[in-house]
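[09:14] KT: can someone run the structure on this one? pasting the chain below
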Amino acid sequence: MPALSVAGIAGLGSVQFMALTSSAVLALTTTEFAALGTAAIGALTTTETAALSTGDIVALTKNQLTALTTTDIVALTTGQMAALTTSQIPAFTTSQIPAFTTTQFAALSTSQIPAFTSTQIGAMTTAQIGAL
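[09:31] RB: done, C-alpha cells below
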C-alpha cells in the first residue's frame, strides 16, 4: 500500500483519521501533521496529543488549535506549552481556556503571557491567573 501524500493526509476526515494507529499518527512528519484538517485534529487522542513534538505544536494553525478538545488541552505537556508562539496563544477559545491546568500556565514564559487577549483573560480562573 503506497504512503499517503500530504494532500491525501489533508483530506482525512475524523473517522478516517481515527482508523490510523497511534504509531502511524506519531510517525507523521511536521509537514504532514500541519496539513491535517480540523476534523482530524479534533480526533487526536490525549496520548497522541501529549506525544506531539514541539515542532508539530508550533506548526499548528489557528483553526487547528481551536479544533483541540478540552481533553486534548489538558494533555498538552509543559514543554509543548513553552513551545507555543505568541501568535498561536490568541487562537485558544474561551471554552478551551478553563481546561488549561495551573501547571501548564506556569510553564509559559514572560514573553508568552502578554499574548493572551482580554477575552481569554476573562475566561481564566483565579488559580490560572495566579499561576501566570
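[09:33] KT: thanks! The chain has one domain: 6-131.
[09:34] RB: yep, looked fine to me
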